[in-house]
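User: Predict the complex.
Assistant: Input components as received:
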Amino acid sequence: MSSQFANLQDYIASLPANVIQNIYGHPASCLAIFRDLPVLARTIIMRFICLPNSETTGQPQPISQGVVSSWINPSHQNTYQVISRMLVKLSIWNEIGTDWQLDATFRNNLTGAIFGGTTNWLDETDSSTVPTERNIKKIDELNLYSSNRWDCVLQYLVNPDRGQITRDTIDVFVHAKLLKRNEDTSSSSTDPYTITGAGFQFLLMNRRSQVWFFIINSLETRQLRGEDISENLIFLFQLSFATFGKDYSCEKFSVAKENFLQHLRELGLIWQKTRKIKRYFPTKLAIELASGLSASSFTDCQLGNDEIQSGFLIVETNYRVYAYTSSFK
Amino acid sequence: MSSSAKHLIVIIDLNPFYWSDKVSSSATLNFKQYLKIIIQFCNAYIAFDINHRLTIVGCSNNETCFLYPDPTSESLIIPTVTKTNLFEQLFVIDRIVENNVKEFMQNVLPSQTSTGSMITMAVTQALCYINRLIRDTVPGEKTSYRILIIQTTADTSKQYMNFMNAVFTSEKMNVPIDGCILNNDSSLLQQACDLTSGIYLRVPDPNGLLQYLLWLYLTDKDVRKMLALPTKVAVDYRPACFCHHKLIDTGYVCSVCLSIYCDNAATCTTCRSAFDVNSSSMSTASGANDVSRRQLR
């Protein structure tokens, strides 16, 4: 049931309309989704945002489709058509007669995110817990923690009986068809689950895609259980804009959100000293999640570089070069 | 697929002489609004794309200063970011620029001979900065640069030589220069934009400055190909003579170093080659990439 959502837009477009409206209620999600759109779409939306709301209705001003297509060079009209269809699917704009009208919630929150609005970004209040020296985490410790946790999760896929992960995560794996129940009761192994072919493919993906795939399936599992995922999605978007190395308060979280926070903590997206201390640190995995999904292998190299051992390069005067490296594992 | 960062350097004209002299301009924009618009544009630029990088250079009538990035201030501001309704990074940028502009304006000396802005100085500083960044590039990272100049004061032809040198350098480095001027047309800026394939705009209504900036200057070359942009106007390519710094239509050109003079001289001051005073041939003064020929007046 979970199809391979290649990027954020396809996933958002697949959600029901009321969830999408909820998500657009927060500036972080609007900005994250905005950033993920193709460049031409962003340019068009930016132009729309400049225009003030219509005086009579207080809603965003509709602009005739002819005018919008005149902004685009005739040679790129096809791209424009593709983009306009995508924006309709994402409910960012609607067709009113022969005009395009930007969705009011989306517009207000995007403007708020960029130019300052009224919704507080982080729901931070003057908390009584001031970050003390003991709680401050260094960046390499955070990186180490997140890679350890994620490796733990992946280990479980390979070797299910050595697992130390929660029921929740196992459910997600089963839902994503990366694990299947072992029905062979006559076998001597005591593993309740075995990895599937798709599971192997998952192990071979790069880290960011793995995290993304896993999070989508986790959200789908929760959706099936009847939970409202818009809060969780908004929280994920907020995380992706956080400053690395800084901690945030989680005092005012609802039960469902706290639950999700612990789930992320297990995966290595968040570091929290103990459950009692109401402050958490986002790790690199979380920050890269929604920001620039379709991007760079460069940052992947950065993550990979931490693991590459230093080798030797020897240049002899008889023009011979020797390189000693570890074989890529 | 390596990452490609897009770096924009914004050069802001903060000359106090323009803002104090309201008679010459019919603008209803005051200095505070002007700054606010610039900051909003910078915010929109950063929010637009994760690969966008920004540097802001401010210039007044006697000096320039890098307003952003400022690593020392950044470490001071980050811990205070909790209660904000802006995307955090934007909040940091805003505070840093605010502090630096305050400092910069306090150091502006009122008594100077010229009222023109040090745009040339800012452009050359920006180009040196770009050069350093290019050298520091990690292999596998492609960065494209461009410069945006927001000018308020009129040109002084004294700057012609240095400015054109800077423009040719930037053309060689493949850095487009975009220009936006609030006052009257500036031929120097027009030439710069034309030579480096940037966009030039004379803002007709300063109240709409933000809209013009957001509509035209957020995107770089690749995206501009997809958009329908304002057509180019005829550019005034008159050069300034090297002796008096006046703009001239016709003059004398040294055949060795191509310096331009308005009057017949015995030797060239740049390359010290002697001129043949008896020769009556007079070449029409032309700009470096001039296509049209001008009539002898």
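The beta strands of chain B are 4-13, 52-59, 64-68, 142-151, 177-181, 200-202, 252-253, 260-261.
Let me know if you want any component modeled separately.
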